[in-house]
Design brief:
- The complex is a heterodimer of chains A (101) and B (150).
- Chain A is mainly beta and 101 residues long.
- Chain A is 11% helix and 58% strand.
- In chain A, strands 1-2-3-6-5-4 form a six-stranded antiparallel beta barrel.
- Chain A is globular.
- Chain B has 150 residues and is of the alpha+beta class.
- Chain B is elongated, with a radius of gyration of 16 Å.
- Classes of the chains: A mainly beta (101), B alpha+beta (150).
- At the A-B interface, strand 2, strand 3, strand 5 and strand 6 of A face strand 2 and strand 3 of B.
């Protein structure tokens, strides 16, 4: 069953995406992902806020089998540690939060 | 020239003790080797190459049981913010902060007339989305505010 926006995902990834690769059971899986990176106030303190860097990659759901918290993800040539993997909107795309450690 | 504000004297004395973490006696004498600083940085804390310990003034409350015409009791509370990549390291940071304060009890008591005591410690999930864990440890000292140097 086609879902709203289904036809737009591939063109969107093709236009804005960067190469994303994950390794699962010894095999490499590659796809395209859209990167978002922003510095956001995470914890309010008396003096201001502790600011963290939120880095996410939006990929087509199930394009990268086996991705999970603690795994590694290569995004545009750089390796990141996965913080969380969550489907968003209608579930056709998945937002992968990462940290550069 | 009067003495600095009592809250600043507490910051100075405590910060000097926190600066010994990971340094005094060598790194092996501690659980962590953090970056220690006063206040929260305005900039992003990434990349977090070392755990982070930040000291801030939090509040000063009057001590109603210790008031007379020339002196006033008060409790000065500071927040110690702890940031690391995982919960266990935050717990270790908290232990090292207490270790530093306890080891410096003599010097703190000379500087502030009272030891610094540990208060509530809370681990928070606010930074989970960026793969960080943050903890807040309250510490307090009961001080005497004189009329000349409050």
């Amino acid at each position: 069953m086609a879902r709203f926006g289904d036809a737009n995902i591939e063109p969107m990834l093709k236009k804005f995406g960067v190469p994303v690769t994950a390794t699962y059971l010894g095999a490499d899986y590659s796809s395209s992902g859209i990167v978002d990176e922003s510095d956001e106030e995470q914890t309010q303190t008396q003096f201001g806020a502790i600011v963290g860097r939120v880095f996410s990659v939006t990929v087509k759901t199930d394009a990268l089998p086996g991705i999970a918290e603690g795994g590694l993800l290569e995004v545009d040539g750089k390796v990141y540690t996965i913080v969380s993997v969550r489907r968003i909107d209608d579930g056709l795309v998945t937002r992968v939060l990462c940290t550069r450690d | 020239m009067p003495l600095d504000a009592m809250e600043n004297r507490v910051l100075t004395a405590v910060l000097a003790r926190l600066a010994t973490i990971g340094v005094s006696g060598g790194a092996s004498a501690w659980l962590t080797v953090p970056t220690v600083r006063e206040g929260t940085p305005a900039d992003v804390v990434d990349p977090l190459t070392k755990p982070l310990v930040m000291l801030e003034s939090s509040r000063t409350d009057p001590d109603q049981t210790n008031i007379n015409v020339s002196e006033h009791g008060a409790r000065v509370t500071n927040s110690v913010w702890l940031v690391a990549k995982d919960m266990r390291t935050v717990n270790k940071l908290k232990a090292d902060v207490l270790r530093a304060l306890f080891a410096g009890e003599g010097a703190l008591t000379v500087a502030l007339r009272q030891p610094v005591y540990p208060g509530e410690f809370v681990v928070r999930s606010d930074m989970r989305s960026v793969g960080r864990v943050v903890g807040e440890l309250l510490i307090f000292v009961d001080v005497i505010l004189t009329h000349t140097d409050p």
